[in-house]
Structure formats: C-alpha cells, structure tokens
Write a structure and sequence with these properties.
CATH superfamily of the largest domain: Histidine kinase-like ATPase, C-terminal domain
Strand order of the largest sheet: 2-1-5-4-3
CATH topology of the largest domain: Heat Shock Protein 90
Radius of gyration: 36 Å
Distance between the termini: 86 Å
Number of helices: 12
Oligomer: single chain
Largest sheet: 5 strands, antiparallel
CATH architecture of the largest domain: 2-Layer Sandwich
Order of helices and strands: HHEEHHHEEEHHEHEEHEEHHHEE
Helix content: 40-55%
Strand content: 15-25%
Structural class: alpha+beta
Number of domains: 3
Length: 387
C-alpha cells in the first residue's frame, strides 16, 4: 500500500514539472523562436563550411572555381603548384591566372556549350613538360544559366610515361624475339631444302642456329629474372662475403673473352674487404657489369675498385671503353634501352642486363650511380651504406 502511495506522489510531481515547463515555453515569443532557429542554422552552415573546406584541401588534383563573370573565387594549393602561382589568384579574371591558351580555350568551350569538357594539355614546369588531364565542369542554376564552373587539373605525366614505356617495351620485345626466331626459321628451311647435304656449310648453319637459340634463351631467362625481381618474388638473403674472392671468380669466367679482345682485368680492393650481400644475386650483378664493361672496351681494360666515401662503401666497375653520351645516361637501366642498338645486338646483349642490375642493387638497399665520358670510359658505382 505504501509503495502505491509513493508512486502516485512521484507521478504528480513529474506531471506538475511538465506542465510548468510547457507554460514557460508558451511564453517564448515568435521572435525568440526565430532567433533560436537562426542560431541553429548558422551553426549548421558553419559546420558545413568547415567540412567543405576540409574536403577541398584534401583534393590532390588542382581545383579552380570561377564565377559566372569569369573571376576566380577559389584555387586550392595543388592548382597553385601546378600553375606556379605565387600571388593569390582569387578576385582576378581566369585569363590572367591561367596564361595557357589550351586551358583558356577549354574553359571558353565549357561556357559556350554549358557542358563538361576535358582534354590533355601540356604545361611547362621547371623547364620540363608535364601532361595534365584538364576537366571544365559548368554548374547550372534552376533556369539553366551558369552559376559558376569548376576546373580540375590532374597531373598524368607519370601515367603517360608508363604508357610510353609499355608501348616501347612491347615493340622492343617483339623485335628482340622476332630477330632470332626469323634467323632460326630461315636457316632451318635452307637445311630442309637440301643444304643439309652441303657438308661444307652444314656446320656453319647449325652453329648460327645454336647461337640464335642461345640468344633467345638468354632473353627469356633475363625476362623471367626481371619479372621475378619486379614482383618481389626474389628474396635477398645476405651473408658476409669476401669481395676480392667474388671478383676473382667473375674474372675467371671472363678471362678468355678479355684475352681475345686484348683488354686487361684488374682489381684494386683492400685485403679482407667484407660486404654483406646475397651471394647468388651479387654474383649476378658483378657478371652483368663486368661483361658489359668488356663488351664496350676495345683498348685498355676493366678495373674493379673498392673504397670508402662519406661513410659509404663504394664498389666501382670502371672501363676505358667508348663511354656513354650525357643525354643517354638518365635512361641507362631501362629495359631494352641501348645507346648503340646495332652494336649491342652484334655483341649479343639482350638489353636487360643493366635493368636487372639496377633492381638487384635496389633490392639490397644499395644505390647505383653511373658516370661516363665519351671516348674515356664508364664508371658504374654501387654505393653501400654503412651498417
């Protein structure tokens, strides 16, 4: 009975409180209600603006907003960086800000057609051409007039470079495969047509077929190796190696080749020099570098040195060969890239050796640097940071 009395009293108190609160709210004027609504709306708009600014700042593409009179309302940092703008562009006409006829024409076409327009545009930046995918988007009001329009700039330079490399790679691999296959096919057909009875030329023909088969096999092996390295399928298992011993073993492989060309093989390595490397992969690096050095050296020879520089260990494979023109140096290490294509093919190169070296050096956590002078020779340096 006492519990029911307590519950009844509690309900009377709650109802009384609610009635008083309703009465107080009824006394609020319509102006005060409007003021409260305005505060809520202002707060909502402020939050929305902050969210909008956060989104705009996070966009990595260049963004320009232009009003319907042609004046810039907003430009993000990426746009300013792409267009090299030092002064704030806001408040200026877009033709003063952009200063690129292709982009100006793109915006004009967008205004005329009231439709989205996009195109690839070349822009000069720091002395280099960069490729930009530009997109102009009109924002229309309820009656179809342009309220403002947006210009988006996406730097696709790297993408275009990769597309060009892919196209070049396909063209190169097709050519590299076609040459030995055509030669093998040609000499095989000659043998089948009766030359097999020609004892005088039979051995010569078979040797040519064997050489082209070896070349084809080397190309396939290098492609497979490069593919495995690029996809991270090759693991680097480092161990302590005596550098002088590793160099001696490679010199032994190429001693006959060097003697036939009349070039020397020397080493300048301090005794007991030890490096931490994957034995098999490091051997592959040395074989490729020393083989290349011998191929392109007619007088003098090849020297492998080791020395310290700025706390780094430097392995330098140096030759007194034909050298590499400066304009080609930055491309050395690309797949199938050759300075002298005819000479390289004649010497039996696949065009993948230095690409493999470059990737294996990087996989070890080292750096590769190439210095060369035409008619003087080339130095390929492997820079090993101190552990």
């Amino acid at each position: 009975m006492e519990v029911w009395i307590f519950i009844s009293i509690f309900l009377i108190v709650v109802v009384s409180f609610l009635l008083i609160r309703i009465y107080q709210l009824s006394k609020i004027s319509s102006k005060e209600i409007t003021k409260i609504q305005r505060k809520i709306n202002d707060r909502y708009q402020q939050d929305s603006l902050e969210h909008f600014e956060t989104i705009i700042k996070s966009i990595t593409d260049g963004l320009l907003i232009v009003d319907n009179k042609g004046y810039v309302s907003f430009a993000n940092k990426s746009f300013k960086d792409i267009m090299k703008l030092d002064d704030p562009p806001e408040g200026k006409r877009f033709i003063e800000v952009i200063r690129n006829i292709d982009l100006i024409n793109l915006l004009r076409k967008c205004i005329e057609t009231k439709q989205e327009v996009k195109d690839e545009v070349i822009i000069k930046k720091l002395g280099y051409n960069i490729t930009i995918l530009a997109k102009a988007i009109p924002i229309l009001d309820s009656v179809g007039k342009i309220s403002f329009f947006i210009l988006l700039l996406q730097d696709i330079t790297r993408l275009k470079q990769l597309e060009n490399l892919r196209t070049e790679f396909i063209a190169n691999i097709s050519h590299e495969l076609k040459t030995p296959v055509t030669t093998i096919k040609s000499y095989t057909e000659t043998l089948l047509e009766g030359a097999i009875e020609d004892r005088e030329n039979l051995r010569k023909f078979i040797e040519i077929i064997k050489n082209q088969t070896d070349r084809l096999n080397a190309l396939i092996e290098d492609l497979l190796t490069l593919s495995k390295i690029e996809y991270g399928e090759i693991k680097i298992e480092k161990e302590k190696l005596f550098l002088e011993s590793m160099v001696d073993s490679v010199f032994q492989i190429f001693s006959d080749k060097a003697q036939k060309k009349g070039v020397y093989l020397k080493k300048d390595i301090p005794p007991h020099t030890v490096i931490s490397a994957d034995r098999e992969k490091f051997l592959q690096i040395l074989i490729n570098l020393i083989d290349n050095a011998i191929k392109f050296t007619e007088k003098g020879g090849v020297t492998v040195r080791f020395y310290k520089e700025d706390s780094k260990g430097i392995i330098s494979v140096e030759d007194t060969g034909i050298g590499i023109p400066k304009e080609h140096l930055h491309r050395i290490g690309e797949r199938f890239y050759r300075v002298d294509k005819a000479r390289s093919r004649l010497l039996g190169g696949t065009g993948l050796g230095l690409a493999i070296v470059k990737h294996l050096v990087s996989a070890h956590g080292w750096q590769l640097k190439i210095e060369s002078e035409v008619g003087v020779g080339t130095k390929v340096k492997i820079m090993i940071p101190s552990e």
